[in-house]
Write a structure and sequence with these properties.
Layout: E1 2-6, H1 16-25, E2 30-33, H2 63-72, E3 78-84, H3 91-105, E4 109-113, H4 119-124, H5 132-148, E5 152-155, E6 160-164, E7 178-181, H6 187-194, E8 197-199, H7 209-222, E9 231-233, H8 239-248, E10 252-256, H9 262-278
């Protein structure tokens, strides 16, 4: 079992470099950052986590800037997006950002992606929400071409460019792992088609997790692939829960750290590390 942390890197939380050093010192394998470019004030889209949207959603830093800052002060800590809103991003620029951070970190990027939930946010970027899953697929496929080909090209409905050069290439080959978020009825199809790992959120479509993971591995085998790792976001930081998740087939537990100042964040991190160490996994 691997253990990670996720936190909204806001302008009022523990500074990212301090957080990253603490995570590495405590033995965590990875540190993930979410993404929201902005939050439209209309608030028509309901937040999946409850009634009131927390403050951090409109205060979060750019994830790739945060990842670079975290990588610069650590040696082994993996840095990731959890999730990157690819449907709101230019794929050529995003491919460059992913490859650049992977290059600078020596191959420590985990690229978590998803379709998003805030429809007004997508629309502000020119993305029609109803088409976001096809847009996500095309942009990831195009990025893979840029990461793996000296002369890359892609021709789709939403992404279309002729042969092009783009360096650096990622250190990880063929590219950083793509962790696909979500737990909907077509999530496993997306993972099999263009993903490397499954990244669900605890409590959101993760009932009967053991059966769902078994189904994912069956589909992977039918597609000629090996077992697909599972990173569970929002895992309860208690030894008994961690042990149960390990039995279900989870390979990485990611604990949620609230975006709080260092004097609150560091004791929480220590408690999470103690729970991970106490789990028999």
């Amino acid at each position: 079992m691997k253990f990670g942390i996720t936190m909204f890197p806001t302008d009022y939380a523990i500074p990212v470099p301090e957080l990253a050093r603490a995570c590495e010192d405590l033995g965590f394998e990875s540190l993930f950052f979410p993404e929201h470019t902005h939050i439209p004030t209309s608030r028509k889209s309901p937040w999946p986590g409850g009634a009131e949207l927390p403050r951090e959603y409109s205060h979060t830093l750019d994830p790739f800037v945060a990842m670079a800052a975290a990588a610069a002060v650590t040696k082994t800590l993996k840095v990731g997006t959890g999730i990157c809103l690819v449907v709101q991003r230019d794929p050529i620029i995003t491919a460059k950002e992913v490859a650049s951070v992977d290059h600078l970190s020596g191959g420590r990027v985990l690229f978590g992606v998803g379709g998003g939930w805030n429809l007004e946010e997508m629309e502000d970027h020119g993305t029609p929400p109803a088409r976001r899953w096809k847009i996500l697929r095309e942009r990831i496929e195009a990025m893979k071409e840029l990461w793996t080909k000296d002369e890359a090209e892609y021709h789709g409905e939403f992404v279309d460019f002729p042969p092009a050069w783009s360096w650096p290439k990622p250190v990880q080959k063929p590219h950083p792992p793509i962790l696909v978020g979500g737990a909907g009825p077509r999530t496993f199809q997306r993972i099999i088609r263009y993903g490397d790992e499954w990244m669900p959120i605890y409590g959101r479509g993760t009932d009967n997790l053991h059966e769902r993971i078994a189904e994912l591995q069956r589909l992977a085998k039918e597609a000629g692939r090996g077992d697909i790792p599972v990173s569970l976001f929002g895992a309860p930081p208690r030894p008994e829960n961690i042990e149960a998740l390990a039995r279900a087939g989870v390979t990485r537990c990611v604990f949620v750290l609230p975006p709080v100042p260092a004097e609150e964040a560091l004791p929480r991190l220590s408690r999470y590390a103690q729970a991970a160490a106490a789990a028999r996994v």
